Amino acid sequence: AISAGYMFNAGTVNLCYNHWQNENNYILPTGGPIGLGLSNRIAAAKGFFQAGGLIIKPKFTYQRNERMATAPGLSREFLPDSARVDLELDVYTLRLDMEHRDTGRFSGTIGAEIRYYEHENLGLVPLQPTGHYTNASAYIFEEIDLGSYSANAGLRLDYRNQKFFSSESNPLLPADETNDYFNLASALGASFPLGDNLTLVGNINQGFRIPSFFNSYVYGLHGGVFAFQIGNPDLEPELSFDLSSGLRLSMPGVDASVTGYFDYIRNYIYLYDAPGHPLAPPPAEYEFVFAHEQDEARIIGLDLHAGLKPLDWLQLSGNFSIIDSEFLGGPHQGRALPLMPASKADATVRFILPDAGTLRNSNIRIKLRYSAEKESAGIYEPFGQFDDGIGPDIPFGVASTESYLLLDAGAGFDLDFGDTELKIDIEANNLTDESYRDFLDTYKGYLLGPGRGFSVTVNIPFWYR
């Protein structure tokens, strides 16, 4: 990644570029590989300008994503000549925000965004069809400060026009198809003090999600999950209604919050195990088949956070989250949604070290990550057939997962060289090399979670005066 900026009296201009490249072999349950070639490039130009009481923030972003995969049994050395999956994606986004501040008790943002999304399938597997869409949106968010009390409200209007091109290899797209969507999202929130250090907050939101290209028209083997996936061209946009409320405690040395939420989703899109799907290939070719469907659903959750600083050199923090879900209609009414996360908790101890010479802002940290056991929703859950007594006897993988506890450690510091300050961070994950599987890991059917790993991040600032 590289970035450059220029500052002047009226504001700043910034240019940045990020390039990520990866080639690897994923091991299949059969023992053979699938070779993958992945790349992602993002270029962005953004500005920050002040004009009277307005702050104007334009931004343009271009993203290029390429994904290639071989047929099962071939390694990455066969790319790109033997790419069976060959997908290219270009996304152009132009956004303009205008913020107003210091205008009495009101502050807020009004803005607009236009995005052009173009996807091309050059391979034999129609994992995602060739097509494009243009999405235009306008939004406004306003907040009023009444001293001890505050309230906010927001609206967003989206229009999307998208077109998919037919493919002889995709039975879901026998002819070109064009769709138009209009959607409105809204939000309303408020906060109320319950004392000098305690605040009650609440939010009401109404949102939407348009089915992705993948949700609607995927048709083929997805090597990452070793399953044949089938889209659903009849999917409607998801519509959600969310309620959340919480308490926040803030006082010297203490920062804590508890938040509960309820989400009702109409047309909830989910992936399910579908060996009997009418468009499924013969069982002899692909053992696992996943398809897309939608029904009414609800999700209830609770998040807890606590941060303590009992001493100047000691910081303690912890988080806990739990989710409960249920279908409110359809063939699985009354049962849990597939692919919901397990209950999780983490705790971090951070030691702040004194500055020494050119060494500044040094810290050492130790972190524990805990995940509770989690049972799959049933045979309709992707990989549900891996559990004993549910589906065929499969000698590898799991659907339900056991609890696990992981130990991480890290250290960070700044090196001061006068006009330049290097920021260095060292991270070690799963120090004890614990064997585990995370419930949402798409490779839990045949692989363990990541073992012991190390990373070093160095941030070197450059500037011109």
Notes on the structure:
By secondary structure, the chain is mostly beta strands. Helix content is 1%, strand content 62%. The chain has 1 helix and 21 strands. The protein has one helix at residues 213-217, and strands at residues 2-8, 11-27, 33-51, 54-69, 85-103, 106-121, 131-146, 149-164, 177-193, 198-209, 219-222, 227-230, 238-251, 254-273, 289-311, 314-327, 344-352, 359-371, 404-417, 420-429, 453-459. It has a 21-stranded mixed beta sheet that branches. The longest helix has 5 residues, at 213-217. The chain is globular and about 65 Å long. The two termini are 21 Å apart.
Key words describing this protein structure:
465 residues; mainly beta; 1 helix
Q: Report the strand count.
A: 21
* Overall geometric form: globular
Question: How large is the radius of gyration?
Answer: 25 Å
Helical stretch tally: 1
* Topology order in helix (H) and strand (E) letters: EEEEEEEEEEHEEEEEEEEEEE
Strand content: over 45%
Distance between the termini: 21 Å
Write the layout of secondary structure elements.
Layout: E1 2-8, E2 11-27, E3 33-51, E4 54-69, E5 85-103, E6 106-121, E7 131-146, E8 149-164, E9 177-193, E10 198-209, H1 213-217, E11 219-222, E12 227-230, E13 238-251, E14 254-273, E15 289-311, E16 314-327, E17 344-352, E18 359-371, E19 404-417, E20 420-429, E21 453-459
Parallel strand pairs: 12-15
Antiparallel strand pairs: 1-2, 2-3, 3-4, 4-5, 5-6, 6-7, 7-8, 8-9, 9-10, 10-13, 11-12, 13-14, 14-15, 15-16, 16-17, 17-18, 18-19, 19-20, 20-21
